[in-house]
Design goal:
Elements lengths: L1 E3 L8 E4 L6 E9 L2 E9 L15 E2 L2 E2 L1 E5 L4 E5 L8 E4 L4 H7 L14 E6 L19 E7 L9 E6 L5 E7 L2 E8 L14 E4 L8 E5 L19 E8 L5 E9 L8 E4 L8 E6 L2 E5 L4
Parallel strand pairs: 10-12
Antiparallel strand pairs: 1-2, 2-3, 3-4, 5-6, 7-8, 8-9, 10-11, 12-13, 13-14, 15-16, 16-17, 17-18, 19-20, 20-21
Length: about 290
């Protein structure tokens, strides 16, 4: 769910979709107590379901709407919510492999954006194999973020953060071969939660590098639907630092252990101090975390 003034009236409207539903709805605010709901776009095929965490970012000076349709491996890209048509961009099962083989910086949806891609996936991190008939371990992108990890930007890397398992890895092209490097995600190192259903890239500490924020979606699939359903609902921010070799590494910091994330969450300056704060709503309730320095 997102709030945004779509019509330029100065009133915040609501863009919403329910997890694994079939479309997006626009609730236009008429006054403080009155909204008129209408579909932005609906998927006509019953086999296609929306993901838990769509994107509504600024691209090319306007808000665009992205989502991934899991079952048919097709991503919707809509140039602004009011665009007459949608662009369907195939995100095949070998998504990460195709990105790594691209050999240039055209490494985002439909080759429209420069840079590398971070994807929140619905299966655990794995190097894609040639034969992907088995559905286990497929890379299914739900969220994409541009991020430069290399100092010279000559090679692309694709960070992969899984939705249901643990680990963040990098994929790159090296002589035509795919190499995967696990950047973090070892439970022995820290208690990175599984069920990381949503993620934001934002400069938390103001050093000019984008950090990322994620956490555990507590009871994501009910009390018996996940491994460790009652594990602490951790909320983390991962601090990005560039080393002497020019590479970026991430250091985890716990924000809270009784909130986590939902299928989406928000980062905004809630108190006007110029610092990004974190707002989450899930089965643990609604929480606001105000950053203090």
């Amino acid at each position: 769910m997102y709030t945004y003034d779509l019509t330029g009236t100065g009133k915040a409207d609501i863009i919403s979709t329910s997890a694994h539903n079939y479309g997006f709805w626009w609730s236009e605010q008429k006054d403080a107590n009155s909204f008129v709901q209408r579909p932005l776009f609906l998927d006509p095929f019953a086999v296609a379901k929306m993901p838990a965490s769509p994107l509504f970012p600024f691209t090319q000076g306007q808000k665009d709407l992205f989502d991934a349709v899991n079952r048919v491996r097709t991503d919707h890209f809509k140039r602004s919510p009011f665009a007459a048509t949608e662009e369907l961009c195939r995100m095949a099962q070998d998504h990460a492999e195709r990105l790594a083989k691209s050999g240039d910086k055209e490494a985002n949806i439909g080759g429209k954006y420069k840079g590398t891609v971070m994807a929140v996936n619905s299966k655990r991190f794995t190097a894609p194999e040639k034969d992907l008939k088995a559905k286990k371990d497929q890379l299914t992108p739900l969220q994409q973020f541009t991020l430069s990890l290399l100092p010279d930007n000559e090679k692309d890397r694709a960070l992969v953060l899984p939705g249901f398992e643990i680990g963040v890895g990098a994929a790159k092209t090296d002589g035509g071969a795919i190499q995967y490097t696990l950047l973090l995600g070892d439970r022995k190192q820290f208690s990175l939660p599984s069920q990381t259903h949503a993620l934001h890239m934002v400069d938390i500490d103001g050093d000019g590098l984008k950090d990322f924020v994620t956490g555990r979606r507590w009871w994501a699939h009910g009390p018996r639907g996940d491994a460790g359903p009652n594990d602490p609902a951790y909320l983390y921010w991962f601090q990005a630092k560039r080393g002497q070799d020019g590479m970026i590494t991430f250091t985890p910091h716990v924000i809270d252990d009784e909130s986590g994330v939902g299928t989406s969450f928000a980062i905004a300056d809630m108190n006007g101090d110029g610092l990004p704060d974190v707002i989450v709503a899930n089965k643990k309730g609604v929480h606001v975390f105000l950053q203090q320095r």
